[in-house]
Design goal:
The chain has helices spanning 2-24, 31-66, 75-98, 100-110, 127-130, 137-142, 146-161, 181-187, 205-209, 234-250, 255-263. By secondary structure, it is mainly α. It has one domain. α4 packs antiparallel against α10. Residues 109, 164, 184, 188 line the site of one zinc ion. One zinc ion (ZN) binds next to loops.
Length: 270
């Protein structure tokens, strides 16, 4: 699978970055949480491989039956595809924070009180089930080869590894266009002024265009999720959000209010 192959290929760079950060910022790591994050990454990759194997025939059928254009594989088409996928990623990420169904998976990424490169590996195995892949379908229908789309998704994900650190420089100039550690640390913050901001994958311009960009006001980010403290436990981190969501759905009077709850803002869950 393109996604996993690219991530495996880049893994020596990820390992070197983690070692460098460990040497400089030992206080932001605990061995227990590092192992949890690694387990979350592996379980996420496993379900992703299975889901992509199952979905590939659908992707190829959509591409061969409905593609509006036929893009040759050129540097230009890859760059256009990369920018479009990053735009779609922005909306996937923003929707994940606005809707209970997607938040139940995405909250895993936000459930740590620490920020370091290993936080990037903290992903839910439920991403394929909640339908992250649905956000890439416009690219396939537009005419991009499914394998190219998945490779671009992997590159976007790989870039995002490097914004999960408090160690990096500020990148003042690059940060006007690109997502940087400074921008993304604020995205993980639970301070009220930073919540639901900086959804960018690679390009921060989407936040600036759609009104979700925030700069630091000098207050240090406090990491974690508002209203819930997760244990350093695989089952708590992965399954508690679903347990809370299912409990709230069971309390609904009818199917309409249950569906409404699934697409409502996460803050209303009890
Ligand atoms: Zn997020
Ligand atoms: Zn993140």
């Amino acid at each position: 699978m393109a996604v996993e192959f690219i991530l495996i290929l880049l893994s020596p760079i990820f390992i070197i970055a983690i070692i460098m950060e460990l040497l400089k910022r030992k206080d932001s790591y605990s061995i227990k949480e590092f192992l949890l994050n690694l387990g979350l990454a592996l379980s996420h990759q496993a379900t992703d491989i299975l889901a992509m194997l199952a979905l590939m025939p659908l992707f190829f059928w959509l591409h061969s039956s409905f593609a509006v254009f036929s893009f040759e594989l050129t540097a230009f088409s890859v760059i256009v595809g990369f920018i479009l996928q990053d735009f779609l990623y922005y909306w996937f990420h923003r929707t994940s924070h606005q809707c209970n169904w997607l938040w139940a998976a995405h909250v895993v990424h936000h459930s740590s009180n620490n920020m370091n490169f290993s936080t990037a590996m903290r992903q839910s195995l439920f991403y394929p089930m909640v339908g992250m892949w649905l956000f890439w379908l416009p690219l396939i229908i537009l005419g991009f080869e499914p394998k190219l789309v998945l490779a671009i998704v992997a590159l976007n994900l790989a870039f995002q590894f490097f914004v999960h650190t408090e160690m990096g420089p500020e990148f003042r100039l690059l940060g006007k266009v690109f997502n940087t550690p400074t921008h993304h640390c604020l995205h993980h913050a639970s301070n009220p002024q930073y919540i639901d901001k900086n959804y960018a994958g690679v390009l921060i311009i989407w936040d600036k265009l759609f009104g979700t960009f925030v700069c630091s006001d000098g207050e240090k980010p406090r990491y974690g999720v508002v209203g819930y403290q997760y244990d350093v436990s695989f089952f708590d981190v992965v399954f508690t959000p679903w347990r809370i969501l299912i409990r709230n759905i069971k309390q609904q009077k009818n199917i309409i209010s249950a569906i409404k709850l699934l697409i409502e803002k996460p803050s209303k869950l009890k």
